[in-house]
Amino acid sequence: MRIESSVTAVSWVPLDCVEGGQRLHFHVGAAQYDDPPPGHLDDLPGLLTAGRVRLANQLQAFIEVDHGRIVGHGQSGRGHVGAPGHPARSTSSPGSGSGDPRGAAPPASVGFTAVPLPDLHPDPVVGDGWVRFGQTAGGLLSLGMPYSTATTDPTRLAAPAAWTTLSLTIHADGASEGALVGASPFPRHWVYDRTGRLIATSGVVDFTGWQADAWDPFTPWGGRDAPVRSTAVETALERELSRIVLDSAPQWLRLRKGATLVEQGDPGHELYLLFDGLLAVEIDGRTAVELGPGAVVGEVALLEGGRRTATLRAVTPCRVAAVPGDRIDRAALAELARSRGWPGPAGDDPA
Question: What is the pTM for the complete model shown?
Answer without folding.
Answer: 0.77
